[in-house]
Design a protein that fits this description.
The protein is mostly helical and about 200 residues long. The chain is built from ten helices and no strands. It has a single domain, classed as Hypothetical protein af1432, CATH 1.10.3210. Helix content is about 60%, strand content about 0%. About 40% of the residues are buried.
Length: about 200
């Protein structure tokens, strides 16, 4: 466990701010200011879109609620590029200052329970945790395939998942834990990501 990143609390934001969000323009401005690493920005955009599609398709949510989910994914690593030693603390404090929906803040705070000491509780929490590491591994796999995402199969991803030397920074333990918490099989999550992730690219 990385004790230095432990947030030391499990309540975030204020209940009065429920459903308060940033506009897409505000979120984009924050990302362009905070995240200079294009690969990291792409990862955050990918996770954001996965959250959006999941909210609409699997939770039958409207556009406004799907944006809440997308915002959690879009901002979950916003402070990692410039302030890795203050990850997730800095983005949480920024969102609290902006009076953003506490559910969004809690999802960000719980996307790495081993690191941040915050348990994923809501559906939003659990799906952000589930998509984070798996999304990164699948994107890494697409980069080594001449055809990218085209024709990618679940079994190919699972082969890379078993190979600990491939995308070694991706925590297999977190993936197993997140799948169990989400109530989904790893096959179902991989299939969903393969279906939705290719459409996301940097502008």
């Amino acid at each position: 466990m990385n004790h230095s990143l432990n947030l030391g609390r499990s309540v975030f934001g204020h209940p009065d701010n429920k459903h308060k969000v940033m506009s897409r323009m505000e979120a984009d401005m924050l990302l362009s200011e905070w995240v200079k690493n294009d690969r990291l920005r792409l990862h955050m955009m990918q996770v954001g879109k996965l959250m959006h599609h999941w909210a609409q398709e699997m939770e039958q949510m409207d556009d406004a609620n799907a944006w809440r989910w997308e915002l959690a994914g879009l901002l979950h690593d916003a402070d990692w590029d410039q302030w890795p030693e203050a990850h997730c603390r800095k983005i949480i404090e920024e969102l609290e200052k902006r009076q953003i929906d506490p559910e969004i803040i809690h999802a960000i705070a719980s996307h790495g329970p081993v690191h941040f000491g915050v348990e994923p509780e809501t559906r939003m929490d659990k799906m952000l945790f589930a998509f984070d590491e798996l999304s990164g591994l699948i994107h890494a796999y697409s980069l080594m395939r001449p055809e990218g995402y085209s024709g990618m199969e679940v079994k190919g991803v699972k082969k890379r998942l078993k190979d600990k030397s491939f995308a070694a920074n991706v925590s297999r333990e977190d993936i197993v834990d997140a799948c169990q918490r989400s109530g989904m099989t790893v096959d179902e999550l991989i299939s969903f990501i393969i279906r939705h992730q290719p459409a996301v690219c940097l502008a």
